[in-house]
Every structure is written in structure tokens, then in C-alpha cells.
Amino acid sequence: MGRTRYLAVALAVVALIVALPTPSAQPPSYAADIEPLFLKECQSCHTLDTPKADLILDPGTGFRALTEQGSTQVTGVRLVVPGDVEGSYLWAKLLGTTEIGKGMPRTLFGARRLPREQLDLVRTWIETGAQP
Q1: Residue numbers of the domain that contains 80
Q2: Which helix H or strand E contains 111, and what residues bound it?
Q3: Is 115 part of a structural domain of the chain?
């Protein structure tokens, strides 16, 4: 009976270890993770040809535009504050919680919220320092 009990405990420990989330090797980067998402979801309105809110997310330009500029809609607010999701205007735009302006991305019928996994990716990118 003791042997069966030890086996059950050992299996439970192994199952627990396997179930634990493993930390990602590296935090998301703009170039590898965020830019492809924004090119797909945002660039149609934020391109050099149609720069809504003076934000251009064309390939190779979006990182600086997001991390080095302030909002054109709210004075004194930065679009992305590395390490501070709640202080990043971009995050409020993606959630649709801004008091000024509208949520993003836009459709013909209003704002469309990105899927949870994409929002989580952007959130993690900002939280971990908004790496290039």
C-alpha cells in the first residue's frame, strides 16, 4: 500500500510541474511581435498616405512613432510608456476606454476590440519595457 501511495504522490508532483506555466524566453519585441499585428490591424488608417491622429505605423516607423511621441488627442500623454500599461494612451485606445477620441481599431460600424490574445501580447510588450 505504501508503494502505491508514493507513486500517486510522485505522479501528482509531476502533473503539477507540467501544468505550471513556463516563463517566456524573451519578452515580446516590436519588430517580431507587435509590428506584424499593427501592420495587419492598424496600418490601413495609420499610414503615410492616411495618417489618422498623425500616427504613422508603416513598416520600420511604428516603434519610434509609438514610443517617442505623445498623443495628438490628449496633451501631455504619451502613446506608450514602457513598463506602464495604464499610463500608455495606446492601451486605452485599444480597450476603448478613452474619454477623448474613439477606440481602435475602427471599422465602418465603430470600434472593434482586438482578440484577447492580441491585447495580452500588446499589454505584455508594454509591461516588459516596450522593446524594439
Answers
A1: 24-127
A2: strand 110-111
A3: yes
